[in-house]
Structure prediction request, 650 residues.
Amino acid sequence: MTPTYNFAFLDENTKRMLRRALLKAVAIPGYQVPFGSREMPLPYGWGTGGIQVTAALLGPDDVLKVIDQGADDTTNAVNIRRFFARTAGVATTERTAEASVIQTRHRIPETPLREDQILVFQVPEPEPLRTLEPREAETRTMHALADYGLMHVKLYEDIAQYGHIATSYDYPVLVDGRFLTSPSPIPKFDNPKLDHSPALMLFGAGREKRLYAIPPYTQVESLAFDDHPFEIQRWEHQCALCGSGESYLDEVVVDDCGTRMFVCSDTDYCGEHLAEAVA
Amino acid sequence: MYVAVKGGEQAIARSLELLAEARRGDPATAELELAQIRQQLRLGVARVMQEGSLYDEELAALAIRQAAGDMLEAIFLLRAYRTTLPRFGYTEALDTTRMRVRRRISGTFKDVPGGQVLGPTYDYTQRLLEFGPTVPIATVEAEVPLAEAMPRVLDLLDAEALIERIDAGADPEPVDLTRKPLMFPANRATRLQNLSRGDEGFLLGMAYSTQRGYAESHPFAGEIRMGEVDVLVCPEELGFAIEIGSITLTECQMINQFHGGNGVPPQFTRGYGLGMGESERKAMSMALVDRALRCDELGEPAYAPAQNQEFVLSHSDNVEASGFVQHLKLPHYVDFQAELSLLRTLSAQHVRHASDRHQAVPEQALEESQA
Prediction:
């Protein structure tokens, strides 16, 4: 632990500000709460929002897991885990089941989460309407009026042009029937895990200075049409390591001839599944 | 055989060693001392303090050395350190009319009360590389000392009511952008705060665009002054202001043409720029962008990027911009995989449609020939 810094880097007043903003976020599911995002010692766009949320949550008894792309050993995940081990001295783990706080970038673990766990998402762009309307003043008004026609038209145009909705990640959801929300750039494969999740889900966007939340057991609906229902990705392959046919697979190029293999993106799930298969 | 990639932690550790080695360079050469950086690279120190939003020459010098001269990295280091500093309070508004001026020029009047003072400037060097060691030059004391008080050039126009009047204290209390998020529409005090922390290169480009027809505002450099200004704080328990030191500032007041509108008569208008240390390019750029951003208030048509406050203020910060641009080097395997499978579906669909059409054409031709 680094003694010259406060527990988990941020000072207690800043944590208090963050906790107040998080309480507001939980009270209004899916609403983007502006907050006084601090400049963190990691670059913007690399998880500063998630890090601030995690710093506000962590207590000495917490067990922290950090994943990026589903894996514990990707360099940015390692770096964030090292940061909290150094500034908070908390226990860290790679096991989903053992963690009390899980900070993630781009995935939701395959292992189902529990009520006593919190999932913290790193969010690059909290505004689901941003690519359709760049002006913040406009998008805030749209949310206030629950005017989401723009997004429905976009999805409709996808169908008209390609025959189906051409959004494969960061697929927009409606939280608690009210706020259109970005699930962060998780593949749409993970969207169903957001619906009625027993675990609290917190989202931090540091650069954009917004927090939002999906409280436990909240209805989360991925946008779709009656004649074009929401579908998730499916693979013809199984994981080449553990044989799972249910997890999200990464494609890996293994030689110069372009030979591919498919492996679980969630490394903890893959390891567990492999151990079970062997036993 | 592929195994799940492991070793991120070790890779980071080795990378840090390589970085430390590269940063130090040849150990036979002496390491840079902070005093050398502070004194001999003072303009770099000024930029790091300004955009790092922390006036501390020693820490800025440390950051520059640690960042191996990469100014944006040094600014980032200083900002991250700044986050951890307790906030004791806020100073009184700085009074730049009481600046102990070392440089002061006006592009609008040949001579002004107090005189034109070039001070230390690169403007009239001839940009010839000086090979060989720098020869120390003995400066000569001026026969007449600089005037104690130097009136603001713009105040001379103010007396004639030719320039818009800005009442001291009329601005709303500025929000602290390092404590509160930027919200739109932002008032002028908030915009100026954002611009003063903004990237010099970005502001320079934005300012330049206003000179090339994108929100032309016909500017004149009314006055640029640089020197030392006292910093006052008024501790609650004392009830009166005390001086805690002085800092070097560069201030630029632009004069811009304005043909009247929004109920305002034709008159000159102002653009304002302020930077820590000797930062003339930044202060001038800031003043031009400030003026362009006042288009709504003055009822001017807003069409150019420099007039769009969401565009300018959301993209001016180099710590934010640098982080987000460079985050693209982080893994995006999962999203890329999602896009790959989507693209494969779309591409298969395209091939199917194309072959359907291909088959359809000869049949149609056959029918026509039979008819």
Q: What stands out?
A: The beta strands of chain B are 100-105, 219-233, 242-256, 269-276. The two ends of chain B are 64 Å apart (CA to CA). Chain B touches chain A through 50 residues (CB under 8 Å). The first strand of chain B starts at residue 100 and ends at 105.
